[in-house]
Amino acid sequence: MHGPASLGWLLVALCAATGAYCLLRMRSVDEGQRRAAGGEAVMGFGMAAMAVPAGVFTPPGWAWPVYLAVFGVAAARSLWAVRGGAGGLLGHHAHHLVGALAMVYMAAATATAPAHVHTHGSSGVPLLTGVLLGYFAAYVLASGARLVPVRAAGAESGGGTGWSDRPELARACRLSMGIGMLAMLLNM
After folding, report:
1. What is the rounded distance in angstroms from the CA atom of residue 178 to the CA atom of residue 128?
2. Torsion of CA 143, 153, 27, 36, to 10 degrees
3. How far, CA to CA in Å, does 133 sit from each of 17, 22, 102, 180?
4. How far is C-alpha 26 from the chain's CA centre?
5. What is the DSSP string of 123-176?
6. What is the rounded distance in angstroms from the CA atom of residue 75 to the CA atom of residue 95?
7. What are the residue boundaries of the structural domains of the chain, listed by start?
8. Among 48, 114, 133, 181, which is least packed by CB within 10 angstroms?
9. How far is CA 173 from CA 166, 167, 177, 180, in A?
10. Cα–Cα distance for residue pair 168/57, rounded to 1 Å
11. Which DSSP string do the residues of the chain spell out, in sequence order?
């Protein structure tokens, strides 16, 4: 990733922490939650790996085809889930599809860009980057609005849920990854 090293390291930390929490969410009793958390963990750790500042570590040439393959498989899996309707999570799977395709796009653009070019030339922002920036900006704003506290259904009974079944933490996790995507797209 191009840009200030401090931004890159903050993004690495945010994405790695999000991926780690998603691994914890994979312990949920709900199978749909486990599957979603697994896909989000892959995205979180993949984003962390891609966000390592270029001045600190330049990935070897074989890393970019690996990123393309991993995120391509994630996109195909999300496309399959969207195609099948997947139990009421259609919008969630569609978002995963957009995220995985955005990662494929960023990996391909980074792999094909000469090392000495820092994109921000006179031609402006490429159309696809602009569309993705708009999508993730809207997603972040909508996700942030959904984080507004509401009284939990079981709050008055004193019954708690485990770390893997906390919907507000899952929303915060998705919001963090949306912010990470925005930062990565802005630094392209």
Report:
1. 17
2. -30
3. 23, 24, 10, 11
4. 16
5. T-S-HHHHHHHHHHHHHHHHHHHHTS----TTTTTT----GGG-HHHHHHHHHH
6. 10
7. 5-114+123-150+162-186
8. 114
9. 11, 10, 6, 11
10. 35
11. --S-HHHHHHHHHHHHHHHHHHHHHTT-S-HHHHHHHHHHHHHHHHHHHHHS-TTT----TTHHHHHHHHHHHHHHHHHHHHHH-GGG-HHHHHHHHHHHHHHHHHHHHHHHS-TT--S-STT-S-HHHHHHHHHHHHHHHHHHHHTS----TTTTTT----GGG-HHHHHHHHHHHHHHHHHHHHT-
Reported pTM? 0.79
143, 166, 177: which is closest to 15 by C-alpha? 177
Q: Which amino acid belongs to residue 181? A: M
Structural contact between residues 177 and 99, judged by C-beta atoms closer than 8 angstroms: yes
Q: Is 122 left (phi over 0), alpha (psi -120 to 50) or beta?
A: alpha
- C-beta of residue 106 within 8 angstroms of C-beta of residue 11: no
User: pLDDT tens digit string along 131-168?
Assistant: 999 999 999 999 888 887 655 544 444 445 566 667 77
64, amino acid identity: W
